[in-house]
């Protein structure tokens, strides 16, 4: 949703940003897929 991972980590009270990243790794992976698809679409226009 465009919110910085550090802000999410702080809001959730995680001691380290890596904790947040580990928990939400699947969300981050899907975001990477969306980004890759967007780049591919722009390159093929």
Automatic annotation (TrEMBL):
InterPro entries: DNA_brk_join_enz, Integrase-like_cat_sf. Signal peptide: none annotated. One of its GO terms (biological process) is DNA recombination. Keywords: DNA recombination. GO terms for molecular function: DNA binding. The keyword Transport does not apply. This is Tyr recombinase domain-containing protein. It comes from Ruminococcus callidus ATCC 27760.
């Amino acid at each position: 949703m465009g919110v910085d991972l550090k802000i999410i980590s702080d809001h959730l009270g995680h001691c380290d940003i890596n904790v947040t990243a580990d928990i939400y790794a699947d969300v981050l992976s899907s975001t990477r897929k969306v980004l890759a698809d967007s780049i591919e679409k722009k390159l093929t226009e």
